[in-house]
Amino acid sequence: MQHELQQVEAFEESKSKYRKIVNAGIRQWVQDFQDGNIRINTVDDLKNSSNSISNYSVTSFETNTNLNQYMGVAVM
After folding, report:
1. pTM score
2. 24, CA 20 to 30 Å: which among 7, 17, 30, 34?
């Protein structure tokens, strides 16, 4: 029972970290857009730009998940 509780807590912590990573990526994208570092002229530009946010977020979350698994924390 204690082990299952630890697994749930680890999962919730991973979700929280993932949300923080995604929010940071979105904030950075918006800041870059407002600063003029991102130019959007077509729908494809927007798609490519938004993909860079999701790629950054997913890669960071996968790294965090792999680290948790390495440390023996089960991730659901």
Report:
1. 0.55
2. 7
* First-to-final CA distance of the chain: 16
Count CA atoms within 13 Å of residue 74 on its CB side: 7
Nearest to 22, CA basis, from 68, 49, 60, 72: 60
What's the farthest any 2 CA atoms get from each other in the chain? Answer: 55
What number of CA atoms fall less than 13 Å from residue 34's CA on the CB side?
6
Q: Cα Rg for the chain, rounded, in angstroms?
A: 16
Per-residue pLDDT of the chain (76 residues; tens, 9 = 90+): 898 999 999 999 999 999 999 999 889 988 988 999 888 888 888 777 766 665 554 544 454 555 445 444 444 4
CA 46 to each of CA 4, 23, 25: distance values in angstroms, whole numbers, following the listed order: 42, 18, 15
